[in-house]
């Protein structure tokens, strides 16, 4: 006798709620179909369901996301970095208090030893015919951020070895919910032959029909839930083993929407607008935002970052502000709309030579016009860099291309090539290779939990409020 178990999954929604009614509709239809066939089906999420770019997630600090997962009848979820490092310790500690599903994350721990009741390294579920499936969760180890918030992420391979050893003795099938990224998933498959399935996320990779390594099937469904994944496991009860593993990702872009979910989102949107509607500041004049020109608001915001971090120099890209602000009352919702990024301030240490190279690179056309996606940035283009504690003079080549002519400190002296300077900027630039000198800095001091929009609110009240 053979039994089929169906695992439906989502990953990296990032609060793209325009897609969520399609997700719920698809899952309802799929689960109903599998039930009619007499098969077991479970629904899991691989993290980054929440992203504070959306007013609903911002207003409810992620708890609305949990409500939506409850209503969609999810069974197991793990956490992504957007749940883990964009909330205060208390907000994360209480995030899943009302979850109707199990939360598994084996490598996350509270530094004070007081763990949330909902946090488990793994869980076990039984199929209709009694097959026991163990689900382990792992999240990406951004400890530079986590530890500032009172958490620690342990090495994933150590935790995984412990969990797998325990589950081998009590389950028939082991599934890893991995918010680690594709390369880590591939390495896990090479090291842990007892893991049957790895469902991944974090790096937004799409594996339409899965990938097999060392008899482990790896799968993932891209980002924003344009696709929903399904893993089909066939267990042979006579042979007492898995005889088939399949993985598919289905494009649901044209799937019908669930009306009840749309109504829920509309109601949550209204409630979020009310929560975020409190006036923060009354502006005496409109705030002008321009991505490719120096503006007063960007200069003042950059000055605020420099003062807040006690850095020698600060720099911010103008693309972090998405829209103008009119004169009159400005609410936190308005500030969130203008600056929705989950970006924190960070201070790095650079020599004068390295700092000069950063300045030059940041003012090049291909940098300012870059349509960045990811690294916390939720805008359109990076925009022109603005500096505090540093005078940057530019000129233009005959072909119209701008170049840095001179850089000096406020007193007029040049940068000392060998001296170390503390530079405050957006944490965006500490990832990847946007500005390599910053990314390679051996000192990175992150300032949490305040986002850039919190500093924008401070700047508006300090410099632009009507007396």
UniProtKB/TrEMBL annotation:
Chain ranges of the Calcineurin-like phosphoesterase domain: 10-205
InterPro entries per record: 5'-Nucleotdase_C, 5'-Nucleotdase_C_sf, 5_nucleotidase/apyrase, Calcineurin-like_PHP, Metallo-depent_PP-like, Pesterase_YunD
CDD domains, per database record: MPP_UshA_N_like
5'-Nucleotidase C-terminal domain boundaries: 290-428
Keyword annotations from UniProtKB, A to Z: Hydrolase, Nucleotide-binding, Signal
Pfam entry (one): Metallophos
Similarity field: Belongs to the 5'-nucleotidase family.
Entry protein name: Bifunctional metallophosphatase/5'-nucleotidase
UniProt source species: Oceanobacillus kapialis
């Amino acid at each position: 006798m053979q039994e089929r178990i169906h695992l439906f999954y989502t990953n990296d929604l990032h609060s793209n709620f325009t897609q969520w009614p399609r997700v719920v509709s698809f899952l309802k239809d799929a689960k109903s179909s599998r039930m009619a066939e007499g098969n077991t089906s479970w629904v899991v999420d691989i993290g980054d369901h929440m992203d504070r770019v959306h007013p609903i997630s911002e207003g409810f600090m992620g708890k609305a996301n949990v409500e939506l997962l409850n209503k969609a009848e999810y069974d197991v979820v793990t956490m992504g970095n957007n749940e883990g490092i964009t909330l205060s310790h208390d907000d994360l500690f209480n995030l899943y208090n009302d979850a109707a599903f199990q939360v598994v994350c084996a490598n996350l721990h509270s530094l004070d030893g007081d763990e949330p009741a909902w946090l488990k390294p793994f869980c076990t579920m039984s199929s209709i015919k009694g097959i026991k499936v163990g689900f382990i969760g792992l999240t990406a180890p951004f400890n530079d951020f986590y530890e500032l918030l009172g958490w620690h992420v342990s090495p994933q391979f150590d935790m995984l070895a412990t969990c797998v050893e325990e589950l081998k003795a009590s389950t028939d099938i082991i599934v890893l919910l991995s918010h680690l990224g594709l390369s880590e998933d591939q390495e896990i498959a090479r090291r842990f032959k007892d893991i049957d399935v790895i469902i991944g996320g974090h790096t937004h990779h799409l594996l339409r029909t899965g990938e097999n390594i060392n008899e482990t099937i790896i799968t993932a469904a891209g980002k924003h839930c344009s696709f929903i994944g399904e893993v089909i496991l066939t267990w042979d009860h006579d042979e007492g083993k898995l005889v088939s593993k399949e993985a598919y990702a289905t494009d649901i872009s044209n799937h019908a929407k669930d009306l009840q979910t749309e109504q829920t989102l509309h109601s949550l949107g209204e409630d979020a607008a009310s929560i975020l509607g409190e006036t923060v500041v009354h502006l005496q004049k409109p705030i002008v935002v321009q991505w490719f020109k120096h503006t007063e608001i960007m200069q003042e915001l950059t000055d605020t970052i420099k003062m807040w971090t006690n850095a020698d120099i600060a720099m911010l890209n103008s693309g972090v502000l998405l829209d103008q602000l009119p004169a009159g009352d400005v609410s936190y919702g308005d500030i969130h709309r203008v600056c929705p990024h989950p970006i924190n301030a960070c201070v790095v240490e650079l020599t004068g030579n390295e700092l000069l190279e950063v300045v030059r690179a940041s003012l090049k056309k291909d940098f300012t016009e870059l349509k960045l996606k990811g690294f916390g940035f939720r805008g359109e283009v990076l925009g022109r860099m603005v500096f505090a504690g540093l005078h940057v003079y530019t000129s233009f080549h005959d072909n119209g291309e701008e170049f840095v002519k001179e850089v000096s400190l406020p007193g007029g002296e040049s940068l000392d090539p060998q001296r170390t300077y503390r530079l405050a900027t957006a944490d965006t630039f500490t990832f990847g290779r946007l500005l390599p000198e910053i990314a390679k800095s051996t000192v990175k001091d992150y300032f949490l939990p305040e986002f850039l929009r919190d500093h924008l609110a401070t700047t508006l009240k300090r410099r632009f409020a009507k007396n």
